[in-house]
Amino acid sequence: MQTYHDTEWGVPERDSRALWEKLQLDGFQAGLSWSTILKKRDAFREVFRGFDPETVARFDASDVERLLGDARIIRSRAKIEATIGNARAYLAMLDAGEDFADFCWAFVDGEPLKGDGVRVPAKTELSEEVSKQLRKRGFKFVGPVIVYAWMQACGLVDDHLKGCFRWSAS
Fold it and tell me: How far is CA 52 from CA 30, 75, 120, 139, in A?
């Protein structure tokens, strides 16, 4: 967890595919610890074929069954089916001329929002709005708490605390 915090968490991510992957992983984390997801991240990447949305969007019922049988990942039918549906939603946005990274970063005017360095909220009005807009585009497992954790992880929001070495670098 320390390495993840020190090198990944809160680092601005501007690649559409990487943003989408992290959103899917945060969806799988719902109800679980983030350390569980980190331990399984490589397996997730393998079974979801590098989180390539075009590939995942073509997954069918046999792929769902294959994934449900793989003990290396979280075997939740709802989360697996949501990931496949989210790949399709991602591609629908792309087909409509809406780049996922541009969509994400537009909520913060292209720059990370700086937290107060004292508290780390579970959700905000902004995460509620982002969640609403994602759901409007067909995404699932994107509630405001999941979305806020994802926004933090991807550096859309900088919630490093005062006293953390990353606070001064923010």
Answer: 22, 19, 31, 16
What CATH number should be reported for the domain holding residue 51? Answer: 1.10.340.30
> Would you call 88 exposed, middle or buried from its count of C-beta atoms within 10 A (0-12, 13-18, 19+)?
middle
Q: What pTM was estimated for this model as a whole?
A: 0.93
For the chain, the DSSP string reads: -HHHHHHTTT-----HHHHHHHHHHHHHHTTS-HHHHHHHHHHHHHHTGGG-HHHHHT--HHHHHHHHT-TTS---HHHHHHHHHHHHHHHHHHHTT--HHHHHHHTTTTSPEE--SS---S--HHHHHHHHHHHHTT--S--HHHHHHHHHHTTSEE-PPTTSHHHHH-
Nearest to 47 by CA among 26, 73, 84: 73
Q: How many domains does the chain have?
A: 1
pLDDT tens digits for 46-90? 999 999 999 999 999 999 999 999 999 999 999 999 999 999 999
**Which structural domain, as residue segments, surrounds residue 144?**
2-169
